[in-house]
Amino acid sequence: MQANRRRDTGPELKVRRFLHARGYRFRVDYGRLPGRPDVALPKHRLAIFVHGCYWHRHGCGRGGQPRTNAEFWQAKFDRNADRHERNAAALRQLGWRVVVVWECSLRDVEGAMAPVLALLRA
Ligand SMILES: [Zn+2]
User: Which one, 68, 85, 97, 122, has the greatest CB density within 10 A?
Assistant: First the structure.
């Protein structure tokens, strides 16, 4: 995927550790699904994307604005958003549920993962 992708970033590891500690089985970087979800739980048909606040322009203020080449970066951010929406739509078509966990929300892992657990138990 894009060059900025890192496989084992801190936020993704937090999500995986949380699920692993609760006995959930999952796949990482599941390339067989649209958008290669960061964490996928095939048994539950739940795909989790862990979004970095900067790359996905979260409104939390953590991302900041690029100081140079503003148009270039804006176009790149827009493509990220478009791609995510396309992938999420494709996943839903395949019968998967899609959930986004924001990097900043993982400062409180329990809180951030509560909606995910709710989906897993539904
Ligand atoms: Zn954020």
Answer: 97
